[in-house]
Backbone:
């Protein structure tokens, strides 16, 4: 653990009974939101009687900053009544909650300094830090709002006197700063920059539209190709089912074929085998008889040749 992380941990332990939440009636910059989160402060979406005054840090902004922030975040133009309602709510809350600070001063602190603030200390900023420079167009509009709703400026200056200034001066000359920043030439330049931003935005929208059109075209091509493949697959499945059915019918026809000629073939084979056996036995008997006669002939020295021939004929008839 680094020394800075250890310091943050020790300071967070001491903050448990001090400020734990922050609240703002408008959105704050993401950089300030990150610093507050690192300091252990949690945002509140609304304030009720359950929140102890010492546990909440109330954050506000100057009227021109509120206008600039709303212009970036909201698509519908704000009104003077909405701006006044924003500051009227801050005025009521500032009567109860004493830990108050402007958003730009808080954002000038680092996370460690914000932790010290939550722990009851009073961190100081460099006195060379100047007030934020208002944009010309927002300054001109803020002056017109101040002329129509002077209560807005009164509440803002009162908040400046109640808030933590961190060693800097209160924004008592706010109207004078707006007047210096609302020179007509500068306001015209801001107006033209807004027009250029709109042209750039239109070009971005046009490019996005072209990309969407191309994506739609690609998607349509994929859909058509998918339909073609599905049709081809259905045809292949139909052909396969037909082949399976034909194969099944062929097997059934082969299994139902009559086999009546099979016994005849087997009987013919049996008769052939029997004749062959008889022939072999006859041949064997004839051979034995001839050998016996040859022995007799050889023993008798050629006697009784006529008798031998008769015996051979008789043996042949008996075998047949």
Residues:
């Amino acid at each position: 653990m680094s020394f800075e992380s250890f310091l943050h941990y020790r300071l967070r332990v001491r903050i448990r009974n001090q400020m734990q939440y922050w609240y703002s009636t408008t959105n704050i910059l993401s950089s300030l939101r990150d610093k507050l989160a690192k300091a252990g402060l949690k945002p509140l979406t609304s304030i009720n009687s359950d929140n102890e005054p010492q546990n909440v840090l109330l954050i506000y902004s100057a009227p021109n900053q509120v206008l600039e922030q709303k212009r970036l975040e909201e698509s519908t133009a704000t009104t003077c009544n909405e701006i006044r309602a924003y500051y009227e709510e801050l005025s009521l809350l500032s009567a109860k909650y004493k830990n108050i600070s402007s958003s730009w001063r808080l954002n000038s602190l680092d996370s460690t300094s914000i932790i010290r603030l939550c722990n009851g200390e009073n961190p100081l900023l460099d006195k060379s830090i100047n007030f934020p420079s208002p944009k010309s167009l927002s300054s001109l509009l803020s002056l017109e709002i101040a002329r129509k709703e002077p209560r807005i400026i009164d509440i803002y200056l009162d908040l400046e006197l109640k808030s933590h200034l961190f060693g800097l001066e209160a924004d008592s000359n706010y109207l004078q700063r707006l007047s210096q920043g609302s020179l007509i030439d500068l306001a015209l330049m801001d107006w033209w920059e807004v027009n250029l931003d709109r042209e750039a935005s239109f070009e971005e929208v046009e490019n996005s539209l072209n990309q969407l059109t191309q994506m739609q075209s690609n998607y349509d091509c994929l859909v058509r190709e998918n339909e073609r493949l599905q049709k081809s697959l259905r045809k292949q499945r139909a052909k396969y089912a037909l082949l399976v059915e034909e194969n099944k019918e062929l097997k059934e026809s082969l299994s139902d074929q009559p086999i009546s000629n099979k016994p005849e073939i087997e009987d013919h084979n049996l008769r052939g085998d029997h004749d062959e056996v008889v022939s072999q036995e006859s041949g064997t008997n004839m051979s034995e008889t001839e050998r016996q006669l040859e022995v007799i002939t050889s023993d008798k020295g050629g006697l009784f040749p006529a008798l031998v021939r008769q015996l051979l004929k008789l043996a042949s008839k008996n075998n047949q």
About this structure: Residues 3-182 form one domain. The CA atoms of residues 53 and 97 lie 5 Å apart. The longest strand covers residues 56-60.
